[in-house]
TrEMBL record:
Gene3D superfamilies on file: 3.40.1360.10, Winged helix-like DNA-binding domain superfamily/Winged helix DNA-binding domain (1.10.10.10)
CDD domains: TOPRIM_TopoIIB_SPO
Name of this protein: Type 2 DNA topoisomerase 6 subunit A
InterPro entries listed in its UniProt record: Spo11/TopoVI_A (IPR002815), Spo11/TopoVI_A_N (IPR013049), Spo11/TopoVI_A_sf (IPR036078), Topo_VI_alpha (IPR049333), TopoVI_A (IPR004085), TOPRIM_Topo6A/Spo11 (IPR034136), WH-like_DNA-bd_sf (IPR036388)
EC number: 5.6.2.2
Similarity remark: Belongs to the TOP6A family.
């Protein structure tokens, strides 16, 4: 490891804070041992029953319930042992200025000298990283932990500066990238926004629709940053969307298929997800609006459809009670979809021509919403 890399790690305030928080957590275990107490760790309960929708913040948040992980039981002791080994690994990783993937952490544990510290599967290791996030108040990105793969991209009139292992580089997200766009890094907090001419951000669920918009020059014609969500969006995708909105005051709209699972993709961008409720204020953009495809579009444009499955129907009925969808707009749309019994993909708009989505559908909808 070069001294330059070590120096970079030492001067990164987020990495330094992450390491300090991890060492402080380990110190608490040591102090408990020294005082003759049974080691323990208090963790907010991350179950659905302890997730609350905050009307004030407009996002999902953790409730007040806590659970105590203690070495009094074999299972509890083993989880604390795994936590100690993981803390040691992460602290060393940060000190050396290195990073690893969540998958690598799982396999790496196979080399640990205590078999009881090894993870049973990747869900086990992923869960522990989430525990450490909640307890320390530090994100896994600042632990230098990466997902195995994301690959989400953006395209639009935005100049940014990115920190890389080869130094800083400035990138214009239209002029300096190919048709695939700018790939969003695992930790968007390493990006500095320099200049932009963006009028709005359009988060798009599918790759096919993202490609159609770029091929038709929608981003250039309308000053639009097109963010490809790749289905349920990764944390990095939601984080950069929130930063673009919050720091540059750019409106955000979300464009998905017309089915209950796609509505939840919108909900994840706007209000956060139950799984990452401890990070909702860091990831969610409550001001994000839904542009479509709406159930009423299926009727008005006579779009090609597929019938709702039983699981679709159950999900829609569940969304009628979901606090994220408690508006007149969503109630009318969901009830209409249950009535017609159909769902449609974004690409169904191509039944009216390849240019219909960029020349007619989006301009009309965005105009109605006041985005244009």
């Amino acid at each position: 490891m070069s001294t330059d890399t070590d120096a970079d790690a030492e001067t990164d305030p987020n990495s330094e804070r992450a390491r300090e928080e991890l060492i402080e957590l380990a110190s608490e275990f040591y102090d408990q041992f020294a005082e003759g107490d049974v080691p323990r760790m208090r963790i907010p309960t991350r179950t659905k029953s302890n997730i609350e929708y905050s009307e004030e913040k407009g996002v999902w948040v953790l409730g007040d319930r806590r659970t105590t992980r203690t070495a009094k039981t074999k299972a509890g002791a083993q989880k604390l042992l795994k936590a100690i080994y993981t803390i040691e690994f992460l602290a060393q990783q940060l000190e050396e200025g290195r990073s690893s993937t969540l998958r690598e952490l799982y396999y790496l544990s196979e080399s640990w000298d205590n078999e009881f510290a090894q993870f049973n599967d990747q869900d086990d290791s992923n869960g522990l990283i989430e525990d450490l996030e909640v307890v320390s108040g530090v994100t896994r990105e600042d632990f230098h932990m990466r997902p195995e793969e994301s690959g989400a991209t953006l395209m639009g009139p935005l100049l940014l500066r990115e920190q890389t292992r080869r130094g800083e580089r400035e990138i214009h997200c239209q002029e300096d990238v190919g048709e695939g766009g700018y790939q969003i890094p695992n930790n968007p907090d390493t990006i500095e926004f320099l200049e932009n001419d963006a009028e709005f951000i359009l988060c798009v669920e599918t790759g096919g629709m993202r490609d159609r918009l770029v091929e038709n020059g929608f981003d250039e014609e309308h000053g639009c940053i097109v963010v490809h969500l790749k289905g349920q969006p990764a944390r990095a995708t939601r984080r950069i969307t929130k930063r673009l909105h919050g720091e540059l005051d750019i409106p955000v709209v979300v464009f998905t298929d017309s089915d209950p699972w796609s509505y939840r993709i919108y909900g994840s961008v706007a209000y956060g997800s139950i799984k990452s409720a401890h990070l909702s204020e860091y990831l969610a953009t409550p001001a994000a609006q839904f542009v479509g495809i709406r159930p009423r579009d299926i009727v008005e444009y006579d779009l090609p459809t597929d019938p709702l499955s039983d699981s679709d129907i159950n999900a829609l009925e569940s969304e009628l009670d979901d606090p994220r969808f408690q508006t007149e707009f969503w109630r009318e749309e969901i009830e209409l979809q249950l009535d017609i019994g159909q769902k449609a993909e974004q690409q169904a708009l191509a039944s009216r021509g390849l240019d219909f989505v960029t020349d007619t559908y989006l301009p009309e909808r965005l105009g109605e919403m006041g985005v244009f």
